[in-house]
């Protein structure tokens, strides 16, 4: 017997592979500093945990509608209106098992065999896999490093064809930490306004923005753009709730209804306990714990960029959002470590593991000249890890 062609098309996650190697070395007693984290290193705030405990003790943990609790969906809709001026009804909100499921549901609902989906490189490595497994064709366009890898409206216009069905826009960007400005997003919207192209706006890092930048959703441009935009967000990053698995999407009623129907036959509702926890998070959005976490990320971002700037032969790309920094390491390709020639980002990452540091090779994100570092780790680990990277660079021959 054989697995399906659909499953064969999926590539294993390089981020999980590197993380697993680092974990195995740690279990063997090897000192490893890992910059691979895609989640906050803080615990979920206590008031959220307490809300989950309360509902567990109440004995009311039952099924909810497949689209999520009405109270939670209404709260999400209220937040869209309060924070971004976006008006949605509760039936236009679908709560899922994390933002990743919201993205998968959207692509599954809208993409037919052979449809093209534009993704902006460097991209989150799951985008092309989801597109492929749903029968679509990922079309990657890459921004210039001098523009923090952000793609221009002209590039998007050139990539559009009669087969283009969707554009995936992610800001702040994983893996670069770049933030598209309001002006840049309006210009992108102008390109797409009169085209029959959906926009999937992945805004999971929307609260993690620094350096005076502000988040702007493409759905805010006008009603025409909003109607064909699916906005995805969740509680994982902002509230340190990755393991709770709560994400959501907002879409026009026709799309939301189709996705609700699909989810009702796949996973049904997201965990009821987690939904109550997410509700508590949104009801106390400006809690001091969350604000302190964001301030800490910003402090680490500045510290990491300052220290990277002092290491020879590598170039950090400035980052204004999320908790990642991309580092161009192509200048050392062709050099050797322990007799092995470093030819690409995978070679670099594997060799760096031997030096006690785990990073993510950015070939997984469509940028093989780079590695991705996460500053969702302590400042002490950042300092030690970057010291090890500098020592590693100096050892190359």
List the keywords.
397 residues, alpha/beta, 4-stranded antiparallel sheet, 15 strands, 41% helix, globular
Structure description:
- With 397 residues, the chain is an alpha/beta fold.
- 41% of the residues lie in helices and 15% in strands.
- The strands form four sheets. Strands 2-8-7-6-5-3-4 form a seven-stranded mixed β-sheet, with helices on both faces. A four-stranded antiparallel β-sheet has the order 9-10-15-14. The protein has a two-stranded parallel sheet with strand order 1-13.
- Strand 3 (116-121), helix 6 (126-133) and strand 4 form a beta-alpha-beta unit.
- Helix 7 packs parallel to helix 8 (182-192).
- The longest helix is centred in the last third of the chain and has 21 residues, at 288-308.
- It starts with a helix and ends with a helix.
- The mean pLDDT is 95.
Structural category: alpha/beta
The major pleated sheet works out as: 7 strands, mixed
Strand content: 15-25%
Spatial sequence of strands, sheet with the most strands: 2-8-7-6-5-3-4
Low-confidence stretches: none
Distance between the termini: 49 Å
Question: What are the secondary-structure elements, in order, as H or E?
Answer: HHEHHEHEHEHEHEHEEHHHEEEEHEEEH
Q: Average pLDDT value?
A: 95
Q: Which descriptor suits the 3D outline?
A: globular
Instruction: Tell me the Rg in angstroms.
Output: 21 Å
Helical residue percent? 40-55%
Total of DSSP H or I helical runs spanning 4+ residues: 14
Count of β-strands: 15
């Amino acid at each position: 017997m054989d697995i399906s062609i659909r499953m064969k098309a999926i590539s294993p996650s390089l981020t999980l592979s590197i993380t697993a190697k680092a974990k195995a070395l740690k279990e063997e007693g090897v000192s490893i500093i890992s910059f691979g984290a895609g989640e906050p290193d803080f615990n979920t705030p206590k008031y959220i945990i307490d809300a989950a405990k309360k509902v567990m003790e109440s004995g009311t943990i039952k099924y909810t509608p497949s689209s999520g609790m009405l109270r939670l969906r209404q709260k999400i809709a209220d937040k869209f209106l309060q924070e971004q001026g976006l008006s949605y009804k509760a039936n236009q909100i679908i709560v899922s098992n994390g933002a990743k499921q919201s993205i998968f549901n959207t692509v599954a609902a809208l993409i037919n065999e052979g449809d093209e989906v534009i993704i902006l490189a460097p991209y989150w490595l799951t985008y092309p896999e989801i597109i492929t497994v749903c029968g679509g064709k990922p079309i990657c366009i890459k921004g210039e490093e001098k523009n923090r890898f952000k793609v221009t409206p002209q590039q998007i216009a050139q990539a559009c064809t009669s087969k283009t069905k969707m554009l995936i826009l992610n800001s702040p960007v994983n893996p670069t930490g770049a933030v598209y400005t309001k002006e840049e997003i309006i210009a992108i919207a102008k390109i797409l306004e009169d085209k029959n192209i959906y926009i999937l706006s992945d805004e999971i890092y929307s609260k993690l923005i620094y350096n005076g930048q502000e988040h702007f959703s493409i759905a805010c441009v006008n009603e025409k753009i909003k109607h064909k935009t699916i906005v995805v967000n969740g509680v994982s990053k902002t509230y340190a709730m990755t393991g709770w698995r709560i994400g959501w999407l907002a879409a026009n009623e026709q799309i939301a209804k189709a996705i609700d129907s699909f989810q009702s036959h796949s996973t049904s509702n997201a965990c009821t306990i987690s939904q109550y926890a997410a509700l508590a998070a949104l009801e106390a959005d400006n809690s001091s714990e969350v604000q302190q976490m964001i301030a800490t990320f910003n402090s680490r971002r500045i510290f990491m960029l300052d220290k990277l700037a002092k290491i020879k032969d590598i170039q950090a790309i400035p980052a204004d959002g999320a908790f990642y920094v991309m580092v161009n390491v192509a200048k050392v390709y062709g050099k050797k470590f322990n007799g092995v020639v470093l030819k690409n980002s995978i070679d670099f990452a594997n060799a760096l593991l031997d030096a006690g540091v785990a990073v993510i090779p950015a070939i997984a994100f469509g940028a093989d000249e780079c590695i991705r570092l996460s500053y969702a780790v302590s400042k002490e680990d950042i300092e030690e890890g970057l010291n090890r990277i500098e020592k590693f660079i100096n050892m190359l021959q």
